[in-house]
Write a structure and sequence with these properties.
Blueprint (H helix, E strand, L loop, with lengths): L4 E5 L4 H10 L6 E3 L4 E3 L4 E3 L2 H8 L3 E3 L17 E5 L7 H4 L6 E5 L7 E2 L2 H7 L7 E6 L9 E6 L11 H25 L14 E2 L19 H14 L6 E4 L2 E11 L2 E9 L5 E2 H4 L2
Parallel strand pairs: 1-2, 1-6, 2-5, 6-7, 8-11
Antiparallel strand pairs: 3-4, 7-9, 9-10, 12-13, 13-14, 14-15
């Protein structure tokens, strides 16, 4: 399509959304992403997934540490910028630069859960009613701009809360799909953005590793509300460090768990410095 666009993307939503845009014919002229970073035990300099995908399609990549109006990558006339999980604050002049401004895919039902961790915070706070995706036009405040389109992502209560990685994947897919369905009408001017109800806004910050610590006696696992809370922590931190507890000086990461008759049941743990093992193989 004859559209001069740039895509600003981070992890984990960026690369899958970029792929969906490309598949739909919205191939950006420029992809903006994080710098390469050391990864793995060997600390090998590794490109972010968004960069790897962009280069596979011969799309120009820019990895700025700072963004200024003089940057050669930004020169010329732009139609629209798309932002997905990009972890830098974009200045107002940049947001306003394209003809159709800058739009963002946010994985919550704004104005609920504005901020850096909407997916995992919905799990931690037990807010399935906030789970969904929003396409918004960005403004100078965080997740504050008018809504272009929004859809809930219903989850049966029998499956709530999902493990964090599963909810990540579901909302990445849903958000990317809504974006490509929304873009034609938005660019044509037939889908005007509507202001959020700012009085109803709630907020979430970045998750702190300390929030993943549980106080657990492995021989008397929690029940009732305490079990529900512990299970939400386990599900929320799955895949991003994992919930953990300490017993007799050893730290145990919890890989999987479930609820059974209002009692927390831990299935698999990783003792510090050792491979993962069945919980009941240790705590018989």
């Amino acid at each position: 399509m004859s559209l001069r666009s740039a895509f600003f993307g981070g992890e984990p939503l960026g690369a899958p959304t970029l792929q969906t845009l490309i598949d739909a014919g919205y191939v950006p002229e420029l992809v903006v992403c994080n710098p390469d970073r050391p990864a793995g035990r060997g600390r090998v300099l590794t490109p972010p997934p968004v960069k790897v995908l962009a280069e596979a399609y011969n799309i120009s990549v820019w990895q700025p540490t700072t963004i200024t109006p003089e940057a050669p990558e930004l020169q010329g006339d732009w139609d629209v910028f798309v932002v997905v999980a990009y972890n830098k604050i974009l200045p107002t002049w940049l947001i306003e630069l394209p003809t159709h401004k800058t739009i963002n895919v946010h994985p919550s039902l704004l104005p609920k859960l504005r901020g850096a961790s909407p997916i995992r915070s919905a799990i931690l706070r037990n807010e399935p009613q906030a789970v969904g995706v929003t396409i918004m036009r960005m403004d100078s405040q965080m997740d504050h701009g008018p809504i272009i389109a929004q859809e809930a992502h219903p989850i049966p209560l029998t499956h709530w809360p999902l493990p964090g990685p599963d909810l990540d994947t579901a909302l990445i897919t849903h958000g990317a799909d809504l974006l490509v369905r929304t873009l034609p009408d938005y660019l044509a001017g037939t889908l005007p953005p509507q202001a959020q109800d700012h009085d109803a806004a709630t907020y979430c910050g970045r998750l702190d590793k300390a929030m993943a610590e549980l106080t657990i006696d492995p021989y008397a696992l929690p029940t009732g509300d305490a079990a529900q809370h512990a299970f939400r922590v386990i599900q929320a931190f799955a895949g991003i460090g994992d919930a953990w507890f300490t017993y007799k000086g050893t730290r145990y990461k919890i890989k999987t768990a479930h609820l059974e008759s209002e009692r927390l049941v831990i299935d698999v743990v990783v003792p510090a410095g050792k491979p993962e093992i069945g919980f009941h193989s240790i705590f018989k």
